[in-house]
Amino acid sequence: GDEEAQQAFDELIERDQRIEPRDWMPDAYRKTLIRQISQHGHSEIIGMQPEGNWITRAPSLKRKAILMAKVQDEAGHGLYLYSAAQTLGISREEMMQQLISGKAKYSSIFNYTTPTWADMGAIGWLVDGAAICNQVPLCRASYGPYGRAMVRICKEESFHQRQGFEILLELMAGTEAQREMAQAAVNRWYWPALMMFGPPDDESPNSAQSMAWKIKRFSNDELRQRFVGMLVPQAEVMGVTLPDPNLKWNEERQAYDMSPIDWTEFHEVLAGRGPANHERLRRRREAHEAGAWVREAAAEYARKQAERAEG
Ligand code: ACO
């Protein structure tokens, strides 16, 4: 019965083993995973836009090829994550509808604009850097298809982070104007990147249960701290300044002290009032409509193939 199934589930979690699609799982566990994995997939798909925006303007053929490959990786991650969510019983169409209707969440970070080439560097270094910090522990998430998807995604993410670091490093070795452009981009993306980890622990309604289920392994604030710790030495190598005058290692707490985060801005962005929310959804909707004929043709082709196979 259900009680036995619940017990088997609890034991798997307890022993750090994996839940697979055909296993029994509590409804709330399934719902949480659909929520998190679909939001994550949407973030990758919407996340193609701020950088896709620069493909035609990349400063060299080499930079253009790298950027195109990166944006393609993001599409791949999105599709991979949608497939993982589908194993939980939600369809691709349903997820797409939730996204283009504005009902679904996706990461706050992708609602910021990319006015300069240096923003490509800052996104790679800070946004993909934050993504790695958050996602490496997700490789051990208790749900098998999600954890496995994360392994591959993290490998590609670390390449993305290095390419961003390298863009900034090169700009910082350039002219005065290039150094200023790099620093300005870091100033723009630093705080929004810290917000990617989600609300502070005492305002994070999903954390306790997700940690008990071993979906999340560390709290939002723990990962944020780890991220800042990773950035400090890298910023020194590049010669950029992290835009927080109160950022300082606290020997006693064994953690960085930092200025308070502007959570009002975070909530505004989540409510759809960030700098580019409207534009991101509009573009996504247009792309979905423009691709309708491809989906129809593919479905029709599959139907004909099946008919032929039946003889
Ligand atoms: N942007 C948008 N929404 C956010 C963000 C954010 N940066 N952080 C938290 N939220 C939302 C949560 O989705 C949740 O909303 P919901 O209950 O309506 O779904 C709400 O704020 C409260 O937050 P938490 O209780 O802390 O939510 P959760 O336990 O899901 O933690 C987190 C949030 C850390 C983002 C988690 O979902 C996660 O690790 N997701 C996978 C990683 C991911 O999605 N990355 C996307 C950006 S990286 C990239 O794509 C390159």
Automatic annotation (TrEMBL):
What GO annotations for molecular function exist for this entry? phenylacetyl-CoA 1,2-epoxidase activity
- InterPro entries, per the entry: Aromatic_CoA_ox/epox, Ferritin-like, Ferritin-like_SF, PaaA, PaaA_PaaC
Give the matching Pfam families: PaaA_PaaC
Question: Which named protein is this?
Answer: 1,2-phenylacetyl-CoA epoxidase subunit A
What SUPFAM superfamilies does this protein's entry cite? Answer: Ferritin-like (SSF47240)
Q: Which PANTHER family match?
A: 1,2-PHENYLACETYL-COA EPOXIDASE, SUBUNIT A, PHENYLACETIC ACID DEGRADATION PROTEIN PAA
GO biological process: one example = phenylacetate catabolic process
Please give the GO cellular component terms listed in this UniProt entry. cytosol
